[in-house]
Design goal:
The chain has about 150 residues and is an alpha/beta fold. It has 3 helices and 6 strands. Strands 1, 2, 3, 4, 5 and 6 form a 6-stranded mixed β-sheet that branches.
Length: about 150
């Protein structure tokens, strides 16, 4: 078991199966030591989704948990691509899109669910640049979609 997976277990998490692409795209692409991961929704390990609009159907705490599931799904994809999460040198960029009611303005606090998990797992290597826009709608009414760019071992 990798150090990152051991830390994940210490935090009480296990990796879900990596989600399949929802369309005609690759789950990840790589150029040199940079890997771009396609966005993943707030999908639980059993395949069900956390769905709804933040500020109407869901609270900030529920959105935070949805973003955390997005991060777990991204980690599952990283492992599928790399074979070992210890090959992730750094999380460089995170974009978290939040399905938001028109008067919801706490997107940053929602996407902290993903950011906090990356920092908890990778320490300073998990600190990243980030965007957290609100969206009028997301595919399947999913609550949150997160994508990221990582630096990997050569």
């Amino acid at each position: 078991m990798s150090q990152i997976e051991a830390r994940l277990a210490e935090l009480g998490y296990t990796l879900p199966p990596p989600p399949p692409p929802a369309g005609n795209y690759l789950p990840a692409t790589r150029s040199g030591n940079l890997m771009w991961l396609a966005g993943v929704g707030s999908r639980l390990a059993d395949g069900t989704r956390i769905s709804g609009k933040l500020g109407a159907d869901l609270t900030v705490a529920q959105g935070y948990e949805a973003a955390r599931w997005c991060a777990l799904n991204l980690l599952a994809r990283m492992k599928a691509e790399l074979g070992d999460l210890d090959k992730v040198n750094r999380i460089l960029k995170v974009v978290g899109m939040v399905n938001s009611a028109p008067d919801f303005y706490q997107q940053a606090q929602v996407v902290d669910g993903a950011s906090d998990l990356f920092v908890d797992l990778f320490g300073d290597r998990g600190r990243h640049a980030r965007s957290a826009p609100g969206m009028a709608a997301l595919p399947g009414n999913t609550a949150v979609i997160v994508e990221c760019v990582v630096e990997v071992a050569s």
